Amino acid sequence: MNFAGFIVAQTLNAFSQAAILFFIACGLTLIFGIMRIINFAHGGLFMVGAYVGYSTVAYTGSFWLSLLIAPITVAAIGGIFEKVFLSKLYVRQDAGAYLMLTFGLAIILAQAVHLIWGPQPRSVAIPDLLRGVVVILNQPFPIYRLFLIAIGAAAAIALWQFLERTRAGLLIRAVSQNAEMVHALGTDVALVRTGIFMLGCAIAALGGVLSAPLVTAFLGMGSTVIIDAFVIVIIGGMGSFLGSIVGSLLVAFVQVFGAYYFQDMALAIIYLLMLLVLIVRPGGLLGKEQ
Amino acid sequence: MLRIEGLHTYYGPGHILHGVDLHIPEAKIAAVLGRNGVGKTTTVRSIMGLAPPRAGHVWLANQDIAGWPPHLIARAGVAYVPEGRLIFPDLTVVENIRVAERTAARQWTLERLFQLFPALGERARNRGSELSGGEQQMLAVARALATDPKVMLLDEPSQGLAPLVVRELANVIGRLRDEGVTILLVEQNLKLAEAVADHVFVMVKGRTVYKAPLKTFQAEQNEVKARYLTL
Ligand SMILES: Nc1ncnc2c1ncn2[C@@H]1O[C@H](COP(=O)(O)OP(=O)(O)OP(=O)(O)O)[C@@H](O)[C@H]1O
Ligand SMILES: [Mg+2]
Asked: Are A210 and A186 in contact (CB under 8 A)?
């Protein structure tokens, strides 16, 4: 086996894994930055995205359409949840209440998926255009994973530019620093909160749709990925967008290379990494020291 | 321009304002004085809608804005320069101002703001956290102006500033009045208040207990100070 080819293939693998992780972690961190809440339902929303994507493909035959329908559907669910339930808690500023409420949503989403789609996993075919492999340094590599890398990078750049260059992005950054002041300067902060919650949900759903062809859509897919996402957000810094990119890359690389070199230890290594970061920089790599 | 009548405000069960009355004619400056903890900041936050009053009126021209949410109060023409300045630390000077700009055609353009505060123009790309206290205060005022206000609420703007900077601040406040902005100035710094105010109000324990034109206040100053202001 050629070593360079192996390294390149595993590196690409890690990048594609990082893309999936980024889709769920960045929404989690953006929502935390604005609302100071940890959305336990984020994994569930990722899963619903995958299932809605599955049904879209089943009915229309178009994977590409599912990349649009699933985020819109999940953003609508998230928006309604935020407006009807979550927003009632903002005056209480009680972390425990948020936790219970979003945890409740996670359970309801899991039950709803079970009712609608049944217990068996649903596999989604890779679209024709992205099927097959390319040979890189004598190693076959799935085209679909290259596509994941491209779309992950594109999404990261687009979101970053959105945050840095648009008025909505400016307001999001300002609200994360001092919501009351933004309110007193004439912006309806409730709208910003609903908007960011919906955006986070849409991105998570996109991640769900994209990961379904790899792992199928299954009931536990949200809980597997949400744990990784929590670790990423802690490593990168709660509320830091760039932190969620760096964290996704770190965790994906440790997962991919760790799984190869230390099979059973891979999970432990991720937590060791998190511990190390917390010791050196308690606020996360790119977070604010608390 | 701004008339406050019988304002009552609570923090949870704590009854903080027990009927505050203030009146500021258009393009005039009213100074609100009072010892620590008498409710000056609460008054300002009540007007702004951040601590909504439970009873009373806040007349802006002939609209009662009491109980409105803060963003609508801001859009109606009230601007807020909070105690402690509360600049967005990770936004640049320009971005801090942009947050307050909702519409394009405005009276206080970025250009005019930088004419009024040349020091801010020089630091346009610096982040809020990199500014000195004086610069942060100027930015807080510039940011408030970017909402094109009729009324500006200033809560202890001189706090922690060097005398030279306080003098600059007094100039700016005077110029804003000349531009037609009505100003409510909460101050512990009597010198600043006397330098700019047209009317003086004194608060004690959540009530306004004294009001007079500046001249009268200056004549009665020793008595007022002894009764209401010294500890
Ligand atoms: N968020 C709050 N919750 C409960 N009580 C508060 C809160 N903010 C202020 N208070 C109380 O309300 C009273 C008035 O406070 P306020 O800040 O309005 O006074 P102030 O006149 O601005 O004082 P200072 O000169 O120190 O700024 C004080 O007794 C204070 O302890
Ligand atoms: Mg105060």
From this structure: no
Rounded alpha-carbon distances, angstroms, from residue B32 to A11, B44, B189, B198, B199: 65, 10, 11, 11, 9
Asked whether residue A87 is assigned to any structural domain, the reply reads: yes
| Torsion (CA) A175, A179, A184, A187 in degrees, nearest 10 | 40
Rounded to two decimals, the ipTM of the complex is 0.94
- Alpha-carbon dihedral angle through residues A171, A172, A173, A175, given to the nearest 10 degrees: 80
- Closest by CA position to A49, among listed A197, A221, A230, A194: A221
Residue A4: inside a domain: no
pLDDT tier at B176 (50, 70, 90 boundaries)? Answer: very high
Is the pLDDT at B147 greater than 70? The verdict is yes
For chain A, what is the domain count?
Answer: 1
Instruction: Give B77 Cα–ligand 2 centroid separation in angstroms.
Output: 22
Ligand 1: which of B8, B16, B185, B188 to mutate, judged by most atoms within 8 Å of the beta carbon? B16
Check if B26 contacts A (Cβ < 8 Å).
no
**Best residue of B86, B88, B92, B155 to probe chain A, by most A CBs closer than 10 Å:** B88
Q: By CA distance, what is A178's nearest residue in B?
A: B88
Q: What is the mean pLDDT of residues B20-45?
A: 95
Mean pLDDT, chain A, whole residue set: 92
Site to substitute for ligand 1 among B41, B48, B81, B190, most atoms within 8 A of C-beta: B41
Residues of A in contact with B127 (CB under 8 A): none
Domain membership of residue A288 (yes or no) is: no
State pTM to two decimals.
Answer: 0.93
| Residues spanned by the domain of A148 | 11-129+137-280
User: According to the model, what pLDDT value does residue A91 have?
Assistant: 80
Per-residue pLDDT, A289: 59
Q: What is the CATH number of the domain that holds A77?
A: 1.10.3470
A179 inside domain: yes
d(Cα A150, Cα A11) in Å, to the nearest integer? 14
Q: Ligand 2 centroid to B37 CA: how many Å?
A: 7
On whether any CB of chain A is under 8 Å from the CB of B80, the answer is: yes
